[in-house]
Structures are given as structure tokens and as C-alpha cells.
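Justification of computing resources. Each target in the renewal requires a structure prediction run like the one illustrated here; the chain below, 165 residues long, is used simply to show the kind of job we budget for.
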Amino acid sequence: MEDLAADTTNELLNTQSVGMMIFMVFVVGVLTGLGEEVFFRAGLLGSMLHGKVNKHVSVWVVAFVFSAIHFQFFGFVPRLLLGAWLGYLLVWSGEVWTPIIAHALNNGSIVLVTYLANQNIISDNYLETTGANDHWMALGSAVVTVLLLVVFMRKSPKTNKELMI
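Resulting C-alpha cells:
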């Protein structure tokens, strides 16, 4: 099942034309981000939060379901963390559009990087050669993300405590 999912993903992302790449950014990035966020964050997470379940428990339960439903064991933990991040984006922003945009950007960037690698514009092992596996790069990215979230939270209205979903 793991191999089938990987083969399907590779076939979907193996585009050769700019037009097909743009189409795949729309399908894999925008539509998938929209659909999954409406279901998982607005639907499941929103229901749990409105049902008075602790927000942290809600975020992590939905993140677990989000990762499990993809049926890919080797990507379970990274997808779990992505699901938690998207869940906290909903909780902190109060709007489902925030995780929708983040999810679409995440998926769309994967399509774009794969296309660029297929066209030999960047190397096939782009992430390894750019130092993305470096712990300092990961720590720096986490710090920047937290700082941006703090700025975002301070600028968001404090009066509306209800989720706008």
C-alpha cells in the first residue's frame, strides 16, 4: 500500500509542461488544501472545539486522524506534525482560511520543486544539497515560524473568541 501511494504520487507529480504543472498546482495544491482543511480543520476540529473538547487534545487527535488517513507509514510523523501545525493555525487565527492557504502553499511548493527537478532546473536531491536536512536550518525555520505566529496573533482581533468557520 505504501509503494502504491508513492507510485501514484510520483505519477501525479511527473509533469513535463508548464501548463500541466500549473494544473497540478491547482489540483494538488489549491483543491487538496481546500478540501482537506474544510474536512479536517473546519469539520472535525471545529466540531471538537465547539463540543468543548480541550483545544490541544482536539488539534492532536485531528492531526493523528489526518496523518493516519493518508495510509503512508513512513510519512506518518511529518504529516502528524503538519496536521498539528495546520490545526494550531486554525485555533490561533480563528479562521479556516489560514490553514487552507498554508496547506495549499505546502502542497503547491512540492509540485513546483518536483517539476523543476524533472526539468533539470534544480537537482533531484535539491533538499539535501541546499542543507534542508541541517539541524540549524530546521531550528532557524522553527524560530521564524514562531515569531511570525506571535506577530500574527498580536495583530489579530482579541475580541472575537469564536471560530469563524
